[in-house]
Here is the input.
Amino acid sequence: MNTQEEKRKKNRSPFNYPVLLEMDNKVSDIASANFFQWPGNGVDISSTGIGILSRQVLTPGDKVKIHLYLGPKETILPAYSEVRWTQQADTYYRVGLQFLA
Here is the structure.
């Protein structure tokens, strides 16, 4: 059986920076906003995707806008992505996101 690591097409590098995730509002009780945001943390990154930790459950196929905070000046880079897999671990979720062109 192939592991997630073996399925990757590109090598990943460590990416221990905060991220901000954003997606269309799926929760009807948040009527004032068309989207919602929550913080996460990067784990690893490549040219095709990023691994993150999130307290919000995500489903494969979900489209997520991710704001990456890069370097000491915290330059913000927005990127659109699709959830490829999610794995629960204690009180958070390990999520694999594929960048969209």
User: Anything to note?
Assistant: The longest helix spans residues 4-7.
